[in-house]
Amino acid sequence: MRRHFLIRCFHWVLAVGIVVNYEFLESGGEPHEWLGWALGALVLLRIAAGFISRGDASFAGLNLSPRLVLQDLRSLAGTYPEHENHSAAGSWMIVLMLTLVVLLAITGWMQDLDAFWGEDWLQNIHEWLAHALVALAALHVLAVVFIQFGHGIPLLRRVGFGR
Question: How far is CA 65 from CA 30, 57, 61, 111, in A?
Fold first, then answer.
């Protein structure tokens, strides 16, 4: 039960932090940088936990089969099966989102280095990564809502809206 709580806390702190940093904090400002560092550190801790822990927090349960991703996406139009853990498409979403947050932290840090100070290409990459992360997050939310209400699978209960 404790692991579920920690995973839910990670999920919601990351989600709220991304929204706040993207929508409400001035890009390049000190609060934006500090929150970016905190989110990057949070994700690195989550990645470490994913490799060393067992159970719900473990990455061993992720299914990254491209064939199963296509099967998952096709089943959205028909009968969508309930998964005990994440689907293959959901597993890829986790990997992509965590990777994007790490890349955002790295490109944000690089912008403070003398070697890259004022480089437009690095700022452009950082912005593109931020837009890609927000687009993936929106797709993630849409998929959860569609599976919850279109297929009647109680996903929202799993992420903190019930038991």
Answer: 40, 19, 12, 36
Structure token digits, residue 46: 């989550």
CA distance 153 to 90: 14
Taking a C-beta distance cutoff of 8 angstroms, is the pair 136, 96 a contact? yes
Please give the average per-residue pLDDT across 132-160, as a whole number.
88
State the Cα–Cα distance between residues 73 and 35, nearest whole angstrom. Answer: 34
Does an H or E element contain 15, and which?
A: helix 2-19
Helix axes 2-19, 120-145, angle to 10 degrees: 130
CA distance 43 to 31: 18
DSSP 29-44: SHHHHHHHHHHHHHHH
The full DSSP string for 87-140 is: -HHHHHHHHHHHHHHHHHHHHHHHTTSGGGTT-HHHHHHHHHHHHHHHHHHHHH
Q: Can you give the pTM of this predicted structure?
A: 0.89
pLDDT at 69 over 80: yes
